[in-house]
Amino acid sequence: MNDTTPATPVLTENDRKVFKHYLSFKRQSFRTSLDKTAEATGLGKRTVQRVNNKLAHLGVLCWISGHGSPEHGHKPNEYRLADEIIAATGPTGPQKDDIQPQSISASVQQGE
């Protein structure tokens, strides 16, 4: 017998750090660089890239790549959180300190 229930995504501590940082912008669309996100979360730039790819795979995040660091006159990346994430967290951002994989999974599934 096949179980068609989608598996709950497993979010690491690093995933949660980056996701919470993005929610802290309290906007659906925002601009930031990988360097700034790495600095704000205490993670490496490559780790942030991996987390971004994971969040994109989950349907939570999409972005348009910029062209380098804003400090050097370049355009930063432009990110957008899924509508369901904004609806689940409200206009003031997350209401709980702990972001659970189930809340992301439920938010993504609601959009299906």
What best-fitting shape do the alpha-carbon axes yield?
Answer: globular
Radius of gyration from CA coordinates: 14 Å
Succession of helices and strands: HEHHEEHH
What is the strand tally?
Answer: 3
Main β sheet profile: 3 strands, antiparallel
Q: Tally the helices: what do you get?
A: 5
- Class based on secondary structure composition and strand pairing: alpha+beta
Question: How would you describe this structure to a colleague?
Answer:
This protein has 112 residues and is of the alpha+beta class. It is built from five helices and three strands. The chain has helices at residues 13-23, 34-41, 45-57, 83-89, 101-110, and strands at residues 29-32, 61-64, 77-81. Strands 1-3-2 form a three-stranded antiparallel beta sheet. Helix 2 packs across helix 3 (45-57). The two termini are 24 Å apart.
Task: Describe the structure using short key phrases.
single chain; alpha+beta; three-stranded antiparallel sheet; disordered C terminus; 5 helices; 112 residues; 3 strands
